[in-house]
Amino acid sequence: MITAQELTKRYGDRTVVTDLSFTVRPGTVTGFLGPNGSGKSTTLRMILGLVAPTRGHATVSGRSYAAHPAPLTEVGALLEARSVHPGRTARHHLRALAHTHGIPGSRVEHVLARTGLTEVAHRRVKGFSLGMGQRLGIAAALLGDPAALVLDEPVNGLDPEGVLWIRTLLKSLAAEGRTILVSSHLMSETALTADHLIVIGRGRLLADTTVADFVRRSGAGTVKVVTPDAAALAGLLTGPGVTLATDAPGSLTVRGADAEHIGRTAAAHGIPLYELTPSTASLEEAFMHLTHDTVEYTATAEGAAA
Amino acid sequence: MTATTTAAATGTPAYRVTAARVLRSEWHKLWTLRSTWINLAATTILTLGMGAGISAAYDGSGEGGLDPVLFVLLGTQFATVNLAVLGILATAGEYATGQIRATMTAVPRRLPVLWSKAAVLAAVTFVLSLWTNLLTFPLAQSFLTGTDQAAALGDPGVLRGLAGNAAGLALLTVLALGLGAVARSVPLAAGAYIGLVMIVPEVLRMLPYGVVDDAVRYFPSKALESLTAAQPGPDAAAPGAALLALSLWAAASLAAAAVTLRRRDV
What we know:
Largest sheet of chain B: none
Number of domains of chain B: 1
Strand content of chain B: under 5%
Number of strands of chain A: 13
Order of helices and strands of chain B: HHHHHHHHHHHH
CATH topology of the largest domain in chain A: Rossmann fold
Number of strands of chain B: 0
Shape of chain B: globular
Oligomer: heterodimer
Strand order of the largest sheet of chain A: 5-6-7-3-8-9
Strand content of chain A: 25-35%
Distance between the termini of chain A: 46 Å
Low-confidence stretches of chain B: 1-11
Number of domains of chain A: 2
CATH superfamily of the largest domain in chain A: P-loop containing nucleotide triphosphate hydrolases
Structural class of chain A: alpha/beta
């Protein structure tokens, strides 16, 4: 279990993370979502003790990460920035890390095999592709057979094959009962792997909920209605929190009212319906809806023109 | 021991961070970089080659009574730069490559990493320099028979000079390693090292104050000279004082590195 309590990080007069509190529960994949520059990496680094919070604290299994006698068995981490000396071979990089905990060479070979790096383990890391580098980062994270994994933008820059590999791996790691916290700015990718979401914008918590609940509560879901009497139905549905759009004659897109309500309203007034189609908002839409005013760098008209 | 016993009983491996394991990790890291081998080989070859070269070319005219150990070990001038680079790469190099994030995630208490790096490098550079010196001296002396630079290993101060030079180089390496950890940048640390070891003492010596002259003796490069000489001259510090001074320089650099490591984010 990973918890953050009122985590705050300031660099000079710039506050990167503000009063962030959340709990990551075991046995689930928790997506850590936010636009670029929203403080995700800083938060993950505070959990790992690489960055000291200005205020608040983060704990792993009840204590700070650095207070554990064998930190690599508590949390395995894949950071966004490359964390390996390019002049060392993959195997020696892992062995050097393994030595700090007394992890045997057989375990190094095991994680190399699991990440598909056995064939290239004798090669120096400087010749590695982005995907291979990412695999090595995951191999390092798995070294201590950790109860939790923290991964910062693991699919960034990967080709489709690499993305698929990470997705499958995360699911199998969660199935083994590990706690997984995976940050991303890619909503659709997170929707495919995460059960739970922590959403931040400008360093503040925006949502801490399930994926389904996040989409539902964001109010971004719509219902498409096709009826010969669109004008009458529109008049009946209009109310606080309901928005209506007409895409084509006889077709309405309703936001803020569910299909059941629309169907009952139509029936009560004898309005025939040819189509009544609820469409769940994608995580992308829900996310945009929630964060559109917390994006660090909003493109302005001048910016777009430049 | 109880942890091991418990772990054995439950069948889970007793993974935990210990000082000895961090030391082993740093030892492994040092030897698994090609640059280490190249650097150490170059240092040894330059010391041996310079010693043999200048001795072979020496015409025995005896111009100015150079100390026989200082003369033979002129090549260690290269070592003061080479080994410093090795020390700087061990710390600042990890920041340049990003390796430091992996290192500090494995050992989040941080300081054991610094102590281990210093211990490994001090031991390696001392042993290597000592052997290099013990080979260079007889090799160079084989060309010097009958000149005023002729000396034997058993002559007063010779063994002490050869060993003192190795100890001095090891301490300079630790000094450089500490600078690397503070600066977190290879060029910045290299600049600071060259400034401190090579430029500052020369500049200070130009000042017309006797106190400054006395102080300059205890600067790293001058202290190394005193340590290397079989018979330090009247203007040089005594070998014991020079060793103490170099130890203090190295300790101060390490202390600054420790404070930086504890206080600053990785």
